[in-house]
């Protein structure tokens, strides 16, 4: 790779504030999953509202998928690592998400869609992240894009660290999606055992790392597999340094907090209770999905 892209070095790495195991739950039509970023962390990890990790080789855990359901007021980012998921929405769009692919959907003022696995056996694994929209954009026109694995920007460092840049930018590589208000950074990083990865992250942004293979250490703290490390915000910290103690795969996610009130009722995330009532009444009257582009 171009070595000019490797110049960023972190002077003051963030420490780990705490480790989070997440909660085993089910959603949709009985899909078993682990909610890694739960409701009680929404303020702390603003602008992120939720992170679900689903992974199973038992079709009963996922086969029924997520039949028709609405969303309003935020964005969903679905990243499939294994398996296939078909999504369809109220505007007649459909797309197939396959190994390593990402669907980025901006629900805006309203989408009704389904997310249904397209396989009867084998492993199904992936993540869904919910990213809030600023108040001014919550009623924007819905938008989505599917990215195949080959379309996602990626680079490999001299130490063999392979980085997929889903959002934001890393070492000069701009991700598939950028957003001004929340400035999300979403990286999937493979680190061979013994390798180090450094990423600059602005001090004011909230950030976390989720380990989905292997084990890493962050500022001396061991982070085992299937744990989220919530990273401390200290004014002098300029980034994150991750060391792999075994071959590891991690998601590194950060964003600029919106610092706006969060009113959530299931798949609606607005700023006030009144706006939630409006969403429910629009849903009841069939107005929620009709304006989808
Ligand atoms: Fe959905």
TrEMBL record:
Location of the Pirin N-terminal domain: 32-131
Domain of life: Bacteria
Pirin C-terminal domain location: 186-288
InterPro entries: Pirin (IPR012093), Pirin_C_dom (IPR008778), Pirin_N_dom (IPR003829), RmlC-like_jellyroll (IPR014710), RmlC_Cupin_sf (IPR011051)
Note describing how the cofactor binds: Binds 1 Fe cation per subunit.
Annotated residues for binding of Fe cation: 69, 71, 113, 115
Cofactor names: Fe cation
Keywords, comma-separated and alphabetical: Iron, Metal-binding
One Gene Ontology term of the molecular function aspect: metal ion binding
One of the Pfam families matching this protein, by short name: Pirin
Family recorded in the similarity comment: Belongs to the pirin family.
Protein name: Pirin-like
Native species: Rhodoferax ferrireducens
